[in-house]
Amino acid sequence: MRDQLAAVVHFRRLWRRALRATGLGDVHVHDLLHTGNSLAATGGATTRELMQRMGFVGAGRADLSAASERS
């Protein structure tokens, strides 16, 4: 647990340094995940593939939820 916390603190320090160096401002890692998925969707990725990229294991259930919302 202690090593994991140290890794998070180290990553945040590097992340802030990178943001300052690039002038990007308030960008979060989560934003990059969504950007990557948007690009993948534009490139033709399926809903299942997008869900897997985001780490959701029950992509099939998401397909069913989306279908039920449309009806």
Number of strands: 0
Distance between the termini: 46 Å
**Strand-residue fraction?**
under 5%
Q: Give the C-alpha Rg.
A: 17 Å
Mean pLDDT across residues: 83
For the largest beta-sheet, the strand count, sense and barrel status come to: none
Structural class, judged by helices and strands? mainly alpha
The secondary-structure element order is HHHH
Q: How many domains would you count in the coordinates?
A: 1
Q: Indicate the percent of residues in helices.
A: over 70%
Shape: flat
| Individual helix count | 4
| Low-pLDDT residue spans | none
Which features does this protein show?
0% strand, single chain, 71 residues
What's the topology here?
Blueprint: H1 2-22, H2 29-42, H3 47-53, H4 59-70
